[in-house]
Amino acid sequence: MPHTHRIGLNRREVLQVGYSALLGVSMANALATPATAAANSSRGKRRPKSVILVFTTGASSHIDTFDPKPNAPAEIRGEFKAIATRTPGMQFTEHVPMLANRSDRFAVVRTLSHKDDNHTGATHHLLTGTKQPGGRFDKPLSRDDWPVYGAGVGFLSPPPAGIPAGVTLPTFLRDGPLVWPGQHGGFLGPKFDPWQVDSDPNQKSFRVGDLRLMDGLDVDTLSNRRSLLQEMNQKQVLLAETVEGRRLNEQQEKAFALLTSGAVARAFEMDREPDKLRDRYGRNLFGQSLLLARRLVQAGVPMIQANMGRVQNWDTHGGNFKRLKGDLLPALDRAVAALLDDLHDSGLLDDTMVIVTGEFGRTPKVNNQDGGRDHWAPCFSAIFAGGGVQGGQVIGKSDASAAYPATVPYTPDDLGATVYEVLGVDPTAEVRDRLNRPVQLNRGEPIRALFTGAIG
């Protein structure tokens, strides 16, 4: 009997979960709905296997990238010129020419929208597909957070042993002592945390040992000390029987399995790639991070989040045009274009969805502080490629100043539902929060227009 109410368990469900636990059946299976089973079964001849979320942390300007307003007043259109793309009628700004030349391979959604103008809450919303529980300004990372997409996939549709469900690279998002929310398994627990790369793949010293558990467990150290840990665990049987003890053992085994998985370990051997290909991506943090993302796709990782830059790199309150033109956009344009070419040439584009977006957009009107743009959540853009997306289309239209959606708005919840459905997870599946209450994983609607070409 599927669970139908939103919060709480009735007596029948408590008994069902209790007997399921005795039989070794997971809570996810105990409360699975027919829709969950359908979403996890193969649909069609080919289902995408991976999603790469290219996250412009700090929030890139939609007006100065994929939704220019060349006919707006100067204080809105800014300093950049609009250029034609390969798609008739679609324009980008002049500093993403390589992506403009590949517009037939992706769709642009110009009406993403939500109501949270602060980085922390908006980041949580974008990276989990759900508003931050009890959200308040600058709320830090918490086990009350909603799970990131990789955690949801790992819980409901885990990949084979030795393959992590999610990897985040090349940096953990923190601002001084504040660690941003929405970056781990949240209430699902540490077992479902994505693996974290906290090192620059462009450095010669980069190695598989730079892959770490978010809670501070270094997989390289764990591997070297496995025999010692096993001896300690044998002597501490009582500890091993506690929840925390079992959790630590699970994390250790997860680390060892990952290190002994040839495909995943080889993904970090960046020097296996031809120099010409590495050059095409760009010999910088952006470029080599996306090349590593492609290698992780080949290794079978379902969810890869690539943070483009250190935290708040794209937070251009001042010097917006100078920073975008001189640093941020050229590297992003080159790296994403190379990724799309590489996936296409290797036959992986149908198997991989690529999403490029920030946590919100920037204000339509340029401020007086050195030509900057401030936070703006009511309207922003994202591009979606691969994974069955019909390229060469614009979905949604913003108003004349790119301030508000003029057509149907889409939320981060809808983006999350799209990610889950693409990866074979039913967005409406129910999971347990930290109080053991069943809650719905995601409440958005997949963006169907990406695949059908029909707006709505």
UniProtKB/TrEMBL annotation:
Region of interest: Disordered: 117-137
Signal peptide per UniProt: none
Record's compositionally biased regions (Low complexity): 120-130
InterPro entries referenced in this protein's UniProt entry, alphabetically: Alkaline_phosphatase_core_sf (IPR017850), DUF1501 (IPR010869), TAT_signal (IPR006311)
Source taxon at top rank: Bacteria
Protein name: DUF1501 domain-containing protein
Record organism: Tuwongella immobilis
Organism placement in taxonomy: Bacteria, Pseudomonadati, Planctomycetota, Planctomycetia, Gemmatales
